[in-house]
Design brief:
The complex is a heterodimer of chains A (about 110) and B (about 110). Helix content of chain A is about 0%, strand content about 55%. In chain A, strand 7 and strand 8 form a beta hairpin. With about 110 residues, chain A is mainly β. Chain B is an all-beta fold. The N and C termini of chain B lie far apart (about 35 Å). The relative contact order of chain B is 0.34. Classes of the chains: A mainly beta (about 110), B mainly beta (about 110).
């Protein structure tokens, strides 16, 4: 039972344009959400997070939106840069220690 | 800066061998985790530990065991390696006051 789903395995955008990565979840107990970025042969690194009491969180070029009624979150990257090319994972917490991760989306930003 | 280190970046083992993957963190974090990453499947939790000598099964514990004798060290053990355990193994740690997990660089394990 995949509680966190990233339905797009890959996304390709032009440098300078917006990248939008999507994530859906099914567990209504999730109350905190995180995005991680992963380069090949490296561990994931934390990017940005959002609590369920908010619907938007911004950090520089990165913005995460949360739509609780639709159980959907998205990560916007504006403007996209070639160095943003990586696999992006969304993750969710229902309190407690563990995170539940999605399958990941490979973002490619073309110069 | 939080540092999570893993004992090997690449490992090749034979079927049936006992395999030890070691993870060390330097931030005095209470919680430590072992994941495996496979294409199209994301990060799946194998085991986690919230305190020394404490462990909890994750989503895919079969074929694995863990050991946490010291707070900074969390070991993953493959009792008898099989080819379907060929994967990228990632260790992570987290303090009690934060949701954010910090990851090590990963160990690419190949079982032949």
């Amino acid at each position: 039972d995949q509680q966190v789903k990233q339905n797009s395995p890959s996304l390709s955008v032009q440098e300078g344009r917006i990248s939008i990565l999507n994530c859906d979840y099914t567990n209504s107990m999730f109350d905190y959400f995180l995005w991680y970025k992963k380069y090949p042969a490296e561990g994931p690194t934390f990017l940005i997070s959002i609590s369920s009491i908010k619907d938007k969180n911004e950090d520089g070029r990165f913005t995460v939106f949360l739509n609780k009624s639709a159980k959907h979150l998205s990560l916007h990257i504006v403007p996209s840069q070639p160095g943003d090319s990586a696999v992006y994972f969304c993750a969710a917490s229902a309190g407690g220690s563990r995170l539940t991760f999605g399958e990941g989306t490979q973002l490619t930003v073309n110069p | 800066d939080v540092k999570v280190t893993q004992s090997s970046r690449y490992l090749v083992k034979r079927t049936g061998e006992k395999v030890f993957l070691e993870c060390v963190q330097d931030m005095d974090h209470e919680n430590m985790f072992w994941y495996r990453q496979d294409p199209g499947l994301g990060l799946r939790l194998i085991y986690f530990s919230y305190d020394v000598k404490m462990k909890e099964k994750g989503d895919i514990p079969e074929g694995y065991s863990v050991s946490r004798e010291k707070k900074e060290r969390f070991s993953l053990i493959l009792e008898s390696a099989s080819t379907n355990q060929t994967s990228m193994y990632l260790c992570a740690s987290r303090g009690d006051s934060s949701y954010e997990q910090y990851f090590g660089p990963g160990t690419r394990l190949t079982v032949t």
